[in-house]
Known about the structure:
By secondary structure, chain A is an alpha+beta fold. Chain A has helices spanning 33-37, 41-48, 98-107, 128-138, 217-225, 286-300, 316-322, 327-337; strands at residues 2-9, 12-18, 26-32, 53-59, 62-64, 67-69, 73-79, 84-91, 114-121, 144-149, 161-163, 171-178, 182-189, 193-194, 199-205, 208-212, 215-216, 241-244, 253-255, 257-261, 266-269, 278-283, 308-315, 341-348, 350-354, 361-364, 368-375.
Amino acid sequence: MKLMQLLQVHGQWTTIRDDGLSKASLILCFAASALCRAGTLYQQIRTMFPQGDIVICSTGGEILDEEVFDQSIAVTAIEFESSQIQVAKTDIQSPEQSCQAANHLASQLKIEGLRLVWLISDGLLVNGSELIKGCRQVLPDSVLLTGGLAGDGADFQQTFTALNAEPTSGQLIAIGFYGDHLQLSCASYGGWDRFGPERKVTRSEGNILYELDHQPALTLYKRYLGDEAEKLPSSALLFPLTIRAPGQHESSVVRTILAIDEQNNSMTFAGDLPQGYTAQLMRGNFDRLVEGAANAASQAKITGAQPALALLVSCIGRKLLMGQRIADEVEAVSETLGTSVALTGFYSYGEIAPDTQSKRCELHNQTMTITLIGEAIDNA
Amino acid sequence: MHKLLQRQLAKALRRSGTETPDMEYLLELISTSYEEADKERRLTDHASKLMEQELKTLHETALRQTRHYFKSVLDRIGDAVLFLNPDQQVIGCNRLAEEMLGFPLNDLQGQNIDQLFSRIPNSPNTTLTAKLQQSRTPVELVKSDLSDDSHQEQLLIFRDISERTRAKRRLKESEQMFKDYAEASSDWFWETDAKHRISHLTGFSQIMGADQMQELIGRSRMELMTHAPKAIFEQHIEDLNAHRPFRDLEYELVLSGSRTPITVNGKPIFNSDGEFIGYRGTARDISDIRQAQAQQQHSDQQLRTAIGSLKEGIALFDINDQLVLFNKRAKQLYHAVSDKIFIGAQYADIAKAMIDRQVLDLEVDSEHWLNHQINKNTRYQTRSKIARTQDGRYLQAIETPIPDGGTIGIYSDVTETVLLEQSLREAKNHAEHASQVKSEFMANMSHEIRTPMNAIIGLTYLAQQELEQNPELKHYLSQIQQSSEHLLGIINDVLDFSKIEAGKLLLHSQPFKFDDLVKQIDIFLQGSLAQKQIQFGWQLADNIPKLLNGDILRLRQILTNLASNAVKFTHKGQVKISVYCHDLNSDQINLQFIVQDTGIGISEAQQQQLFSPFMQADRSITRTYGGTGLGLAISKQLVELLGGQLSMESEPGKGSRFSFEVPLNKVDTLSITDHTHPTLKKIASTPETSTASKIFSDEAQLPMILLVEDNNINQMVASRFLQKEGLHYKVANHGAEALTQLENNHFDLVLMDMQMPEMDGLTATRKIRTNPEWQNLPIIAMTANAMSEDRNACLDAGMNDHIAKPIDFAELREKLALWLTSSLQHPK
């Protein structure tokens, strides 16, 4: 596997790594949504890489090497030794179509030899839980499904994705990885601490939450946020919500807020909040979050694959909380994985990865999710 | 260098693109990172506080709930509980404790328990009884220790034991009560030994004497009962041998030769080993009761004999509807069910047998009858019931409740009475029917009589017109006319009376001017007054309303009758009509009319019969004064119809005074236009009356009249009249012909008879009015159907006016002028 990594900040391109690619088969490009909106991004990349599938995704922050950037373009071109990829895309207009659209998307991929599907989705027009459900209806259990929801900084206004075209909203993109030599692993870790009383989801519809313990959830959030309430919905990420099924104490998921509705006093999350579930607010501590990221990295670590690429999908909530210190978590991942592993990725509106406990693919929020891709050296 | 600062420096370097970092950017990054740290701290602080608050609230809720549970449990247990501090003062309690001690917790708190209880246990877990200081309620109380390491507390539990105390007292009382009852219900107590020999007597000597007591002791029951009937004796011996208790054993105790009836109760007694040792019991002298019973039987027998000899059947049912008494006659009357009539028989069974055997010929459904009889709620509703039996008798049953809840029934055969009643009723119906037929016949006569009368009067009138130059013949004709009019008056009286009798006279209220009534009577009397040397006058009260609502026709009829009588029987002096008005309420007044004369008067004997029909004061009067003798009778009936009473006072030779008072409604001036002449509404405006000698003088404009009349003579009379008036006309023989004529020619007015062959006048009028062209065509009824309801029928059918036969030609001329003016002013 050969990689080439390029970064554009303040309009200047810098080459971060160059293994001397002869022909890139996949070019991943993470960019600020403002740069996606410009409408020339694809053209720029295509000029640099005339061949290979170009996948573009808007972000809440770009990860390249061991740093986190804003308002940048982070490009990673990959040339496989023996593995192949197949790409697919489909449109989505509203969250209700999530399952069906995802089903349609996954159906376009050849199943034979398929090892990993890395999914990039519009970050606002989807219900992540349904998205995964739709993919899983098509994909065999043996196929690893990871990825993330595109971001829009802290604005939650418009997200972009693209496959071999200029970025637009309302697209799902799947990259299928094929090949016996592929070495894959993934891990997801949060590092948030629960705090405050446990509450019950007393009124919700799908991914729209109205009431916790018969009190408007939005009011609760506003109380906790104090001055920061002005910055809703993004500021709600400072207090993620963890939910678990009634009677379940082990397995719980964290939900990221996507939008608020002052009129209905409701909050829209990236995944479902079923009524009757127990919910609890969470709070991050810088050190614990960094430790969480390192944890994810050590779980994902593969020995023997040289070189390898780590695709990091971390939650925008972590970045909003940690501010400039967010790079600490990427550094921690980099230190754990070692210098031979190249890093790229983005801050997202939702992470897709199997649950650490149940191994079932879930939509995560507020986690650092790492998908490690390597190719075993061919003995022949 | 700090990692963050390193990164910030790297970013600043990248930004400058040179070896020197962009210092401004670096400072901005550093400043931002401080702000971020600040924000994070603020948030954390805020969230911690909130969380603390929330958790505190949760904790308090949980605590409150626990307290609530504890209090609920405390309040629901059946014992009162006090919590005490080490000083034995109350610090808490449950609800029952508050109730029992009679204080709310607030007042109890701080009180020492010494003050609450008569005594208290010294050590925990010992139970003692005490009394509440306040209410003296006995309680049982126990103290226990609640103390732990941190605090010392004690618990005092107490419960009300007054019920237990009361139970003890009740037991004592009931023992005494039993003793009292035993003494009250018997005269003495006795005891016998195992061989049934009397061993003890208590209270006996006080009643029967000490000697008799000595005579009795030691004698066995068998000896004492020698005079008892064999069956009772043997039964008793059996009871004794079996050691069974016995009750109400009655026999005659023979002591010193005298016999005393007694009743004895006894119970076997056994020792602690269960061995029979004798009987113990009570006895009572029942001589008085026996005597009373004998008397009762005697009087019962007397009553039975009396009832048995009654002509009516008697049956007495008790509260359970069981037959307890009946006589032979009852059985005879209902012989078909006599097997069901016996002492103890149920009322319902007897009634049911009557239905099953069809004893009665019922007019109602037998099921319904049975339910009605069996149910005591309905049985008495019809006190007297007469029913026909299948064998043709009529039985009357009078069933009445008696105070103890039973029923007494008295039954009698009323066949003769019923049959007599029936024949009387039939006779009465027959008579009533005949009278009705007569009245109807009279009313129907009206039409038949009027038609020829019309011809006579009409022809007379015409003949008079022709005979201006022959005064003698003209005089004869005038005599004929007067006689005819007299005859018509008599006929009208007779017909009116028969109508009243047949109940067919109806009143027609309408608004009228009181002045009109006065004028009309003045005009009516003019003729008769002219021939007399007497004064006539009115005396009218000031407060008589100008407008009134009532039947002016009938009112006028009464007054003209009374006034013309007065004039007729008065030869010198005066006739006066006085009218007074009394307010009844805001809408009604009473008008009092008094007609007073100075005439010949009426004797007391004559007065008795004055208002009877066909009677005049004297036969001779009929000869002297004429008249049918119906006038006063009609007036009296009419006054009554109007709601008044006609009364009279009179003295022969001095004069008479007739008076009556009738209620009338006031009319407000606004509504009068709507009521006076309903017919006028059909014509746009009121035509003016013409007084010209001929109705129309302008030859060119002569109107065309359609005369609809079936009777030849009347056709001729009317035709001649119209000719003489110079009017053009055509004749139709009945309604259908009239319709054809109207189709083919133009007419300005229709004179319409009512009763005609083919099509009558009412039907014809209705048909005419269906044609929009003929809406305003004046139609005048000219008919022998002279009653006011006939007039109304004409108007309802759509006619504009009505003239009764025999025709008054002056009236006809006036009406023609009236309606023709209107018709010509408003051509169709």
